[in-house]
Design goal:
Two copies of one chain form a homodimer.
Chain A (H helix, E strand, L loop, with lengths): L2 H12 L3 E5 L8 H12 L4 E5 L5 E2 L2 E2 L13 E4 L6 H11 L3 E4 L10 H16 L3 E3 L5 E3 L16 E8 L2 H14 L3 E6 L8 H10 L5 E6 L5 H11 L5 E5 L4 H11 L6 H10 L3 E3 L2 H14 L7 E4 L7 H13 L9 H10 L20 H12 L6 E6 L1 H4 L5 H17 L4 E5 L5 H13 L3 E3 L2 H14 L12
Parallel strand pairs in A: 1-2, 1-5, 5-6, 6-7, 9-10, 9-11, 11-12, 12-13, 14-15, 15-16, 16-17
Antiparallel strand pairs in A: 3-4, 8-10
Helix pairs in contact in A: 1-6, 3-4, 6-7, 7-9, 10-17, 11-17, 12-13, 13-15, 15-16
């Protein structure tokens, strides 16, 4: 299938004009009902129809007894009913001219029994013969924040962005969406495809490779059965857009569990580990690493080299942090250059005093509590040709000893202002300690201004090192034909 | 020096009856003044005397013009005055019969210049000839929570506990104290010794090895000059008490910075990496790993083997998390055993329903939202002989979709109750996502009940694996003679 065909084929999934939710009812405890509320709360622009044989109404909206009973056209149906009733519903969808169906329901091939496998195959055969596409079963489905489609199961929705995430696991999709909302990792699409009975990883990858709303692709995958084909697809796409891949079920036990989770074999971890690297994609090994890396691609992909200037702590007094930050950077292959004499002279004209260390990493001493001094220091570093990016360590517990939260916000405004006008990316390290509420408040303001915030130098350095090592040709982002 | 001599020598440092703070004044911006307020706020039981030639008073307490002018005896003096004035102050301390002095002030050997080195040597010579001991210079000093001595610089103080932390870096000491307060990592002593001009790592290690208040020892060290001797000391102590060692300045740049930070050479990283392991201590590479490992030694040191039962998510729906948790455990050498038939039969009698996976890791499905069911499941696992410890994944963002925060607290009460009566350690994994305030509230309640909480399976598994690999003879905790 050509890219254009795939695009047309999947368009009603990502931009449906109307959605029906089979399984929404007057029973507020049902997942279908929650999904209906989630779509309303997220502000979905199209029509939403709850469907349940028992009828009734939710939030003043009539519940239709069947898909066929809905008066207007229906592009997309979300199915949250017992698996035994799904075949009848598919027949209704075909009759109604529905384009695609997302099956939330479990009880298919992932059960491992013959009955579940047969039911899934029967469902796919019937749908395909009628041109109806299926997402799932056993999946939480699709989120498309730009048009107000939340993660259906949780209602999670953040600001729209340029990252697509593709996953067999609904749980990881939900969690990444929640983490993304907190850290301002902004998504074009989140796709949980579960058992992948009809539309699978390959189909969605093809779509995303040409999707103009998507600049970065993250992926969680357990499946091993199409390993080689998926690897070849990743290889082609990674030339166009950065790809970050988390392979689950890599170990013996994990692999066994993956098999029962989505009914797919997890494949050899040796093959995958090497293949992801060879394909030019970035391999990550946890949800934290996945989120950290996507955030780095989103906010600091313009970084031109590996040389860091480090302000080891705002507010001063952090010789040990300077040592540890330098250790961590070295471990990740980042450089901490000595600065030119001109830069040092300019810095010493701005900051003076005991405890101040005018080398990289910088200990600004007490001067680092004054917004205007901080701004001048950043401007000097901006002109230093040996520095590619700046890392600033902000320990809220420490700052709160000396200045108020609003003064901390004023310091952060300097960072925000700098990151808006400088081409040198700026990252903030904010260590969780005891002043959590203040820390969260400060971090959110930075994140909202699209500054990447990390909880440790280790995680910040790891993420930026991954961006530097991948370096796909971001400019050449044309649709791919296959 | 024998252990008993060392104990007597350092006793006035950890249990002073009276403390003077040189540099406390009516100027609220001065660090000495802040230290005075910190001691009052922490509820230090002994006498505290502010000292400043300008006199005046703070919080109704008279500021004495000099150490000699203080009427009562003074065991311990904290010095936060310019380095140029320190020699005169030492003379005063000797005249007054002070036992030990902590020099917060910088401007000594860590500057790298001859003048600083000479001043430090002069200070040490004068003090030693008069039997006065020095902590520092260039350090934040000592905290002893049991008698109300906070980290002097920040005022941080948590509940007293059994962990001692020893560090060249004041910044790391402050941060670990803050992290400890949040995660209920409870300290017997926190010791920042800076340049270690008189009392150094060896002295404090000897003291802590026999300190009955200390059962676990954490250490951050940059120094390399006494590498072999320190390594031999660690080797002996690790047989008595678990030792967790973080070596800073291991890399080229980090080592260079370490040299300027405390005036010590950082030594070869190859030597240190191997030596820490050989010595039977646990090597960690970041503050997060240090805190995670100390918490594990504190709360779950009774763990008898490496076999985990995992509840992959409270509230259900986490097949992907189960796969990832299994991957992470395998990577850290932890086992996820199959359960016996009897256990499976008992579990299936308690929990039923679609989505429930009665294998390890467990997906309890909707049953995992009911406290009484959770309690019954834990009791069944308690009787399963193939399980050594239990990990429970609690994703607050997800739980909050279905139950209130007070219902989440009720679920956590079940975990707390179980951890009090079972010999099988229970850990909680709580993933940071978007519902931070609720999450912090839930985590704090668990931590206060001495349940170890980790932000990811990766960090939980890493910490428990370190405890299992170290396995010192905890019972044989006699004072060491050298």
């Amino acid at each position: 299938m050509s890219y254009e065909e795939k695009l047309n084929d999947l368009e009603p999934i990502f931009h449906p004009r109307s959605i029906a939710i089979a399984g929404a009812s007057e029973d507020s405890g049902k997942i279908g009902t929650k999904m209906f509320h989630n779509f309303v709360a997220a502000g979905f622009k199209g029509d939403i129809y709850p469907v349940n044989p028992r009828g009734g109404c939710i939030q003043g909206v009539k519940i239709y007894p069947s898909i066929k009973a809905i008066p207007g056209p229906v592009d997309y149906v979300i199915v949250a009913i017992p698996s035994a009733k799904v075949l009848d519903l598919i027949a209704d969808c075909v009759a109604k001219g529905v384009k695609a169906v997302q099956i939330f329901s479990a009880g298919f091939s992932e059960t491992g029994n013959e009955e579940g496998r047969r039911l899934e195959q029967e469902m796919v055969d019937r749908a395909r013969s009628a041109g109806l596409r299926i997402i799932g079963p056993n999946c939480v489905g699709i989120s498309c924040p730009a048009i107000g489609i939340p993660v259906p199961s949780t209602g999670g929705i953040g600001k729209p962005g340029s990252i697509a995430f593709l996953s067999q696991s609904g749980g990881h999709t939900e969690t990444l969406a929640d983490v993304g909302r907190s850290r301002e990792i902004r998504f074009s699409k989140l796709i949980s495809f579960g058992n992948g009975s009809d539309l699978n990883a390959l189909d969605f990858l093809t779509y995303l490779s040409g999707d103009p709303e998507t600049q970065i692709i993250g992926m969680y995958i357990e499946e091993g059965k199409n390993g080689r084909v998926i690897f070849e697809r990743i290889k082609r796409i990674a030339k166009l857009k950065p790809m970050v891949v988390w392979k689950g079920g890599e170990t013996g036990v994990g692999g066994e569990i993956a098999a029962s989770h989505t009914g797919a074999l997890a494949g050899s971890n040796v093959m995958w580990g090497a293949a992801i690297h060879q394909a030019g994609a970035v391999k990550v090994e946890s949800l934290d690493e996945l989120a950290d890396t996507l955030l780095a691609f989103q906010n600091i992909s313009g970084v031109r080299g590996n040389r860091a200037a480090i302000i080891s702590q705002l507010g001063g007094g952090a010789g040990g942090v300077a040592v540890s930050a330098a250790d961590v950077c070295s471990q990740h292959g980042l450089g901490i250059p000595r600065l030119g004499k001109k830069t040092r002279d300019r810095l010493s004209a701005v900051i003076r005093g005991a405890g101040t260390i005018l080398r990289n990493p910088f200990d600004l001493g007490l001067a680092g509590r004054l917004p205007n001094i901080l701004g001048e220091v950043l401007d000097i570093l901006d002109h230093e040709s040996h520095v590619d990016f700046i890392m600033v360590n902000e320990r809220i517990d420490f700052l709160r000893l000396f200045i108020s939260l609003s003064e901390i916000h004023a310091m952060n405004d300097v960072l925000i202002d700098f990151s808006r006008r400088s081409k040198k990316p700026l990252l903030v390290v904010s260590t969780p300690a005891s002043a959590d509420v203040e820390r969260v408040s400060a971090e959110r303001r930075l994140s909202e201004a699209q500054i990447a915030v990390y909880p440790s130098f280790h995680r910040a350095a790891g993420a930026i090192a991954k961006v530097l090592r991948s370096r796909p040709v971001l400019e050449v982002s044309q649709p791919q034909t296959n």
